[in-house]
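Hi C.,

You asked whether I'd gotten around to modeling the 78-residue construct. I have! Everything is below, sequence then structure, no commentary in between.
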Amino acid sequence: MAHTFEDLVQLEQDAVDAHHQYTAPGVDDLDAARQAWVDAAARFQAAVTEYAAAKGESRVEVEMAVKKAVRHPETADA
């Protein structure tokens, strides 16, 4: 599946959200929450690798740009 940059942003946001659920107080099933986080992060990493290879870009640069877009959207275009 070919990913767009917007797909990568959504996958990273999903991983961040899953992490927040895992670290939230009073999690009912810690193991399930951790696995959801790990799975979301793995999907993101695989998509970044695929995207970077398809575009001929540095994998690290792509990952950094996506994480900046998710964590600091006000400066992502700057």
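If it helps when you're writing up: The mean pLDDT is 94.

Thanks,
B.
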